[in-house]
Amino acid sequence: FINSGQSFSTDTNAPEILSVVAISLTNVIVTFSEQVETTTAETASNYTISDGIIVSGATKTGTNVVTLLVSALTPNTEYTLTVNAVEDLAGNAMVNATANFSAEILTSISELRSKPYDGSTIYTLGSEAFLSYQQDFRGQKYIQDATAGIMIDDNTGIITTEYEVGDGISGIRGTLSEFGGMLQLSLIHIS
Description:
Blueprint: E1 17-22, E2 27-32, H1 38-41, E3 47-49, E4 55-62, E5 65-70, E6 78-83, E7 97-102, E8 105-106, H2 109-113, E9 122-125, E10 129-134, E11 141-144, E12 149-153, E13 168-169, E14 172-179, E15 182-190
Parallel strand pairs: 8-9, 12-15
Antiparallel strand pairs: 1-2, 2-5, 3-6, 4-5, 6-7, 9-14, 10-11, 10-13, 11-12, 14-15
């Protein structure tokens, strides 16, 4: 090994929690500030949630993302996630890292349509909606339930399942915005 005058630093900082998002009443996505080691990240007992919510499973779904399977969350309730012993690739373990989150799960498209459309607030539609029209342009799909309808803008191709008109779609997450006078849901996740 030849030292060419470069200095190297050792990682001594444990990962941090970047975000916690309930994508349904039983699934919570945790995003960390760096890559996490698989065994510690997938140990369910390394995660606790306030109010007696039980974490029964943890699956690493990205280099720095873990999806937790939890007992039923109550909609519109704030929770605190505490993470211990999850390590980064250098072996630095988290100790009592906390983050607050809520499970805002909307029950209908009319409820979704009543929310502010600022392009940044993330909403989850917890009920099933039915496909009423679709086109290839920007992956647009029009969905409806018994209360209302809305257009989904899926320009990034998040929906990979082939749907037919009349099929039910659930687990939709996205942001609301207006384009050309039409309210649309810009998709960021579908489960």
